[in-house]
Amino acid sequence: MTADVIRFEQVAKHYPGRGGQGAVAALDGIDLAVPEGAILGVIGRSGAGKSTLIRLVNGLERPSAGRVVVDGVEISALAEAGLRRARRSIGMIFQHFNLLARRTAFENVALPLEIAGVAKAEIRRRVEPLLDLVGLADKRDRYPAELSGGQKQRVGIARALATEPRVLLSDEATSALDPETTEQILHLLRRVNAALKVTVLLITHEMAVIKAVADRVAVIDGGRIVEQGATFDIFARPIHGTTRSFLSRLTAGAIPALLAGRLQAAPLPGGEALLRIVFTGAHATDPVISRLARRLGIDVNIVQAQVDEIAGRPFGVILATVPGDPAVLAAVAAEIAALQLHVEVLGHVR
Ligand SMILES: Nc1ncnc2c1ncn2[C@@H]1O[C@H](COP(=O)(O)OP(=O)(O)OP(=O)(O)O)[C@@H](O)[C@H]1O
Predict the structure, then answer these.
(1) Which superfamily, per CATH, for 4-248?
(2) Distance between Cα 284 and ligand 1 center (Å)
(3) What ipTM was estimated for this complex?
(4) What's the whole-model pTM score?
(5) What is the pLDDT of residues 127-164, one digit of tens each?
(6) Calpha distance 194→238 (Å, rounded)
(7) Where in this chain does the record put each ABC transporter domain (predicted)?
(8) Is 324 a pocket residue for ligand 1 (Cβ < 6 Å)?
(9) Residue 306: closest CA among 278, 332, 282, 287
(10) Which atom, in ligand 1's list, is nearest to the CA of 13?
(11) Neighbours of 112 (CB within 10 A)
(12) Beta-sheet strand order (sheet of 24-35)
């Protein structure tokens, strides 16, 4: 059994109210476990409590109730000296990189080692392979102002890894980057996770980030985890409205606006049902649809079909309409279940 490297047990965090207002419950009843070597993504809207959650892991905040355990140590119970020691096994990367402008790439990566009192030769021995790992060996003597956003974040990643941490925290690390650079940085995070076996906890407000890197996801809303599980399962079978709303912003599976506006919950006489069929790559789109049409003798209209990849597994979504008659829907459900695919009725249209 793999151990959990990060564990939240019934954690709550309340901030005192500001300007005469009541206390703010930033987090409540949080139970969360990050298994060793996993990449867990926490997604939530602005103000949901993501930053608070990540700051509890490195002890920048203390819980009002519950325990936060990192690598077997109860972070939430440590005094300052213990915290300083524990933080060496927790690296962190930031949205705005937080590099020191007057230090070169090499010197930025070396900083945590200098603070830890590591000898110069040993620092060189550790920093150079890290610069290699993040693809910046040729930029070692450049200053942050001479680097692109993606290159700065690579320095940030190398610096976070310098003390050979067991845990890497990522606070919206790609939010300031363009989509292509984001993809490269997320790819690098996966590579680092695999090569160094470092456990990653990242917070984001973008489902695309979750899709690209996270093995597991926790959806946070109003300070509570409303849904969590393997990324693939959450994408295949989202339950909570917040999760669905995040997913609807991705192209795959988003209901076209024209149709969304007409969608009703109850079947309409003579109408059609809009289905979301999730498949996992074993079946191509066409055979699934033509099999349904052929075996049931019905019209199946594809509204949208897309094949994607989630946590390294092929993942396809088809939105299609079929006759909305309950008997037809039951037959469709049986056919799709026989193919071991997942189907959901999103609503009805006429
Ligand atoms: N130091 C503080 N004092 C009082 N309230 C705070 C403090 N820090 C955060 N809060 C409140 O706690 C709640 C959660 O904030 P938090 O920063 O954790 O959310 P977030 O999900 O990270 O949001 P964002 O994505 O906008 O950074 C918010 O209502 C916020 O206003």
Answers:
(1) P-loop containing nucleotide triphosphate hydrolases (3.40.50.300)
(2) 44
(3) 0.96
(4) 0.87
(5) 999 999 999 999 999 999 999 999 999 999 999 999 99
(6) 27
(7) 6-247
(8) no
(9) 278
(10) 12
(11) 19
(12) 24-35, 4-15, 65-70, 73-74
Does ligand 1 lie within 6 Å of residue 15's CB atom?
yes
Please check whether the two domains, 4-248 and 257-349, share a CATH topology. no
Using alpha carbons, select from 306, 303, 325 the residue that is nearest to residue 314. 306
Ligand 1 centre and the CA of 48: distance in Å?
7
User: Residue length, the chain?
Assistant: 350
Cα 52 to ligand 1 centroid, rounded to whole Å: 6
d(CA 325, CA 270): 8
For the Cβ of 12 lying below 6 angstroms from any atom of ligand 1, the answer is no
- Comparing 78-87, 171-180, 310-319, which segment has the lowest mean pLDDT? 310-319
The predicted-structure confidence for 179-218, as pLDDT tens digits, reads as follows 999 999 999 999 999 999 999 999 999 999 999 999 999 9
Tell me which long-range contacts 129-137 makes (C-beta under 8 A, separation of at least 24).
130/158, 130/161, 130/162, 131/105, 131/106, 131/158, 133/158, 133/161, 133/191, 133/192, 133/195, 134/158, 134/188, 134/192, 135/188, 136/105
What's the CATH fold of domain 257-349?
Answer: Alpha-Beta Plaits (3.30.70)
Q: What is the 104 CA–ligand 1 centroid distance (Å)?
A: 33
Ordered by start, the domain boundaries in the chain are 4-248, 257-349
